[in-house]
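Retro notes, structure queue

What went well: the backlog is down to a handful. What didn't: a couple of records were mislabeled last round, so from now on we paste the full input next to the output in the thread. Example, using Fumarylacetoacetate hydrolase family protein from Hyphomonas hirschiana VP5:
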Amino acid sequence: MKVAKIQRGGRVASAIIRGDRVHVVGRWYEEAALAAPFDAPRLSLSQLGEIADSAGETLPLDQVGLLMPSEPLSKLVCLGLNYKNHVDETHNDLPPNPALFTKVADSLVPHGEAVLRPKVSEQFDYEGEICVVIGKGGRHISRETALDHVFGYTIMLDGSVRDYQKHSVSAGKNFWRSGALGPWIVTADEIPDPSVMKLETRLNGETVQSTTADLMLYDIPTAIAYVSQWTPLAPGDVIATGTPGGVGARRKPPLWMKAGDVIEVDVSQIGVLSNPVGSEH
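Corresponding output:
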């Protein structure tokens, strides 16, 4: 099933998407999009199914806005250098452990909204990624049981400002509104084997990245187990699993995103995260 965070008339709610309609989960919130709770990952699949089958509030999909499917206080942990072809193109050594960084909420926008090339740089690069959304919290999770903790999967565009990234990964990966998350979460029961997912990133319709999840250096169960060693995972937390080769910085000449472009990240079994590119004024 597809689970989303939606907005309508200045109010925010969790929802289940079925065809061209959304089924509202729980109550509407008056808070701003980034501040509003996202209840769905705390519920079981059976609870969500009962809501979708009930005679509760439903709306046409085209009458709501899709927001980032995340909680205000959720962690967003990202793996770097998790595909060998990306390690090779960046001339790095294979990481002996997962290489991690974090992203802040306002560095991301929802599906359909413009990602912004920052005022201070032209080196605005794309990285398409598969993301895991945690449903069952835990600490020191074993690799063998890690998939039991997964609520579902979504997509991220990790917009990267390369000249700043050279001296500060935190800065280069967290420029305001430089990336995107969404458009929704597909629950784990529909993707029992995440290693078969295929990822493709397209810039203005041209494929610039293509991979399958089985080519990750550290697979999804390993990533969950490793992250849970240093921080407790909670429902709604997101782990981005890294990007494959093909980034713009390693092309000759470099290929940077600019205003007027459209960037899409397409993941099989999930959907397409699509965003126009704008410029910060």
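Agreed that this is the format going forward. Reviewer comment attached to the example: Residues 2-67 form one domain.
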